[in-house]
Amino acid sequence: MPLKLSLKPGEKFVLNGAVLVNGDRRSSLVVQNTAAILRERDIMQMEDANTPARRIYFPVMMMYLDSENHDEFYNEFVLRMSEFMNAIKDPSALALCVHISKEVMASQYYKALVTCKKLFDYEQERLNYVPEGVSDGSVEDRNTA
């Protein structure tokens, strides 16, 4: 089934490892066969893999884009996923991890990337959590002290 991409002016995307940039007008591109495609918003640089969930996403993305170095990225994925799963207890987050692992094992890397983004949401909820009565150091807290 063909994939239709609607691209914004100047939007970047990766097609089978090649970085392409759309021109100065909105355009559409139809891909007729199977290809590894990621839009700019889904591409992560190594230095942006700075949280546990992002450290899972990055090697999955690289397996999707760079099949020549699959084993290296797979080993990194296994390490990061194991660390993440050992650190959490939430059943829904653990189920997401199992789902991602199954997608990776089935070489369904794009699907795994989509599922990984759900871990970003889980992680963000935990990182933003401040228990009631505990100061987060904000200006409001300092002004009321």
Question: Could you outline the blueprint of secondary structure elements for this entry?
Answer:
Blueprint: E1 3-7, E2 12-15, E3 18-21, E4 27-31, E5 37-39, H1 52-65, H2 70-87, H3 91-105, H4 109-127, H5 139-144
Antiparallel strand pairs: 1-4, 2-3, 2-5
Helix pairs in contact: 1-2, 1-4, 3-4
Question: Would you kindly provide a written description of the structure presented here, covering whatever features stand out?
Answer:
The chain folds into 2 domains: 3-42; 46-127. Helices cover 50% and strands 14% of the residues. It is built from 5 helices and 5 strands; from the N terminus they run E-E-E-E-E-H-H-H-H-H. A 3-stranded antiparallel beta sheet has the order 3-2-5, with no helix packed on it. A two-stranded antiparallel ribbon has the order 1-4. The longest helix is centred in the last third of the chain and has 19 residues, at 109-127. With 145 residues, it is an alpha+beta fold. Strand 2 and strand 3 form a beta hairpin.
